[in-house]
Specification:
Layout (H helix, E strand, L loop, with lengths): L2 E4 L3 H12 L8 E4 L3 H10 L4 E2 L3 H7 L2 E4 L3 H11 L8 E4 L6 H8 L4 E5 L9 E7 L5 H12 L2 E5 L5 H9 L1 H18 L4 H22 L3 H7 L6 H11 L2 H21 L2
Parallel strand pairs: 1-2, 1-4, 2-3, 4-5, 5-6, 7-8
Antiparallel strand pairs: 6-7
């Protein structure tokens, strides 16, 4: 499978490297173009065996699957560079937040389209992605996307109307979790732990708690109750989280990111 990236930024590098390291494609079958020389060089360095194309037109011509990995505000211009080079048998996959399949079809004059919302943990093959197919895409296209995204994490097929919510939750979510880990680390330092120890404990705690939810298949509230003893340390900490609006802040963050995704999709 020949895979081409229109855009060589962080998410493109995460996906390209993940595909190669998972053994799904050979590095020599991956190419990219980015107008930023630094971004393109980083792509070639971080995706083993990948090559740099001379332009987006070359990416489209040489690839069976074309991934659109540019910022939403730059996507229309990039589509204009490749639209004349898209045969009917090419699958185009967009990871641009907010840009609808309908708009993509108009910009590209192409109908075999899939819209994807991945996240950066794809780089370490623990991504959380969702995708939606255009009406003209078929089940083979769905299987291709499931295989690609499944190689770098979890992939869910959803209705396109839900992808802005996916952007707000799992697309932006890693930044929220990183902020929580940073705060937990600082708190550990404040109560006397060395920073390296606090960071290691905070990271492993978040990893372990998430794995417990996945493996135990219990509601998070049930698992929380198991470690919340009457009059104990955890309930004292939980009371402070509630006092400072921890849950409300996370909900508001996801809602705000979702709204921004919708705004990006509506802007020209």
């Amino acid at each position: 499978m020949q895979i081409g990236f229109v855009g060589g930024g962080q998410m493109a590098r995460a996906l390209g490297r993940g595909f190669v390291e998972a053994g799904l494609v050979r590095g020599g079958d991956v190419r990219a173009f980015d107008p930023s020389r630094e971004a393109l060089q980083a792509f070639v360095e971080q995706v083993p065996g990948a090559s740099a194309a001379a332009g987006n037109a070359e990416v489209a011509q040489a690839s069976e699957v074309v991934l659109l990995a540019v910022k939403p505000q730059h996507l229309q211009a990039a589509c204009g560079e490749i639209r004349e080079h898209l045969d009917a048998d090419k699958l185009v996959v967009s990871i641009a937040a907010g840009v609808t399949l309908r708009r993509l079809a108009g910009w590209l004059n192409h109908r075999r389209l899939v819209r994807v919302m991945p996240n950066t943990p794809c780089l370490v093959r623990t991504g959380a992605s969702a995708f939606a197919l255009a009406a003209e895409a078929d089940e083979d296209d769905a299987l291709t996307v499931e295989k690609l995204l499944g190689a770098v994490g979890v992939a869910l097929r959803l209705d396109e109307s839900l992808l802005d919510a996916v952007t707000g939750l799992s697309g932006s979510g890693p930044a929220f979790v990183y902020t929580m880990i940073e705060a937990m680390t600082d708190a550990g330092v404040r109560v006397g732990l060395p920073r390296t120890a606090a960071a290691a404990l905070a990271c492993q705690t978040v990893r372990g708690a998430a794995e417990m939810v996945v493996v135990e298949r219990e509601h998070p509230a049930v698992l929380r109750d198991r470690v919340t003893s009457p009059g104990g340390t955890t309930i004292a900490g939980m009371a402070q989280l509630e006092r400072h609006g921890f849950r409300a802040a996370l909900i508001a963050a996801v809602e705000a990111a979702t709204l921004r995704s919708k705004e990006l999709g509506e802007s020209d």
